[in-house]
Write a structure and sequence with these properties.
alpha/beta; Rossmann fold; 4-stranded parallel β-sheet; two-stranded antiparallel sheet; 8 helices; binds zinc ion
Length: 251
């Protein structure tokens, strides 16, 4: 149940304590893909996971609106990229999770579509859980499904998912430009030490990896396997003991 599409009385009547919060980024993904890849993919996976969970468990998680801007200053050299500081991001995500918990949706999976958000999300979800606000865990979809496929950035994985979700937003005629200026690894490494902070230090087009092998069918498979993994995480946090109380160790 996407909160943006339902009324407050629907939210009142929702018999669930599960919530999904899609989190992404508005950042360049090469010349062929839109700036919104990371929040569009996160939201699609969250909605698909909510539907699949409801079909299996007779309990439909609520889906918060996607948070469209994250920690992405590393893409600042590429026009149109937006970012917030980690502090802003953490407190914004925390406030949204606390407001969900206020309404009883206090078991939260944050569905993340952007690698740059990962550290801040782990930290803020840990803080919320330890402080008894809600039980929150970050779920970064490509960490779960991408080992089977080359992730890169704006590469075949993300491009496949976009070809499935919003094919009109993918400019296939620009794949060659994307591939030509692509970098080959996520940084500039000397003895395992990354000397680079910004993406343009190792990629001219904004890409890592050639998007050409992308297909809509692969995107459909990635959506399904990401949503299924997310369903398993939802089921696990629903079952897991969490008192939501700060107790003294001698109680
Ligand atoms: Zn991305």
């Amino acid at each position: 149940m996407n909160l943006a599409e339902h009324s407050w009385t629907d939210a009142r009547d929702a018999e669930t304590d599960l919530a999904l919060v899609p989190v992404g980024s508005t950042e360049q993904h090469g010349p062929h893909a839109p700036l919104g890849v990371d929040h569009m993919t996160a939201e699609a996976i969250a909605e698909e996971a909510a539907e699949r969970y409801a079909a299996e468990h007779d309990d439909e998680p609520v889906v918060a609106p996607a948070i469209p801007v994250g920690v992405a200053e590393e893409h600042r050299a590429f026009d149109g990229t937006l970012w917030v500081t980690e502090d802003t991001f953490r407190s914004y995500v925390a406030d949204i999770c606390r407001s969900l918990a206020h309404h009883g949706f206090d078991r939260v999976v944050v569905v993340n579509g952007h690698g740059g958000n990962t550290g801040a999300l782990r930290e803020v979800c840990g803080r919320l859980t330890r402080d008894g606000d809600c039980y929150a865990v970050p779920f970064t979809w490509f960490d779960v499904v991408a080992p089977e496929f080359e992730l890169g950035h704006g590469g075949p994985t993300e491009t496949s998912l976009m070809l499935h979700l919003a094919p009109d937003l993918v400019r296939e005629e620009r794949y060659a430009e994307a591939a030509e200026g692509a970098g080959h690894e996520f940084g500039v490494f000397v003895d395992g030490t990354n000397l680079a902070y910004d993406f343009d230090e190792f990629s001219e087009s904004g890409n890592l990896a050639d998007p050409t092998p992308a297909t809509a069918a692969e995107g459909e498979r990635l959506l399904a396997s990401s949503a299924d993994a997310c369903v398993r995480v939802l089921a696990a946090i629903e079952e897991r003991e969490w008192t939501g109380e700060r107790e003294r160790s001698d109680d």
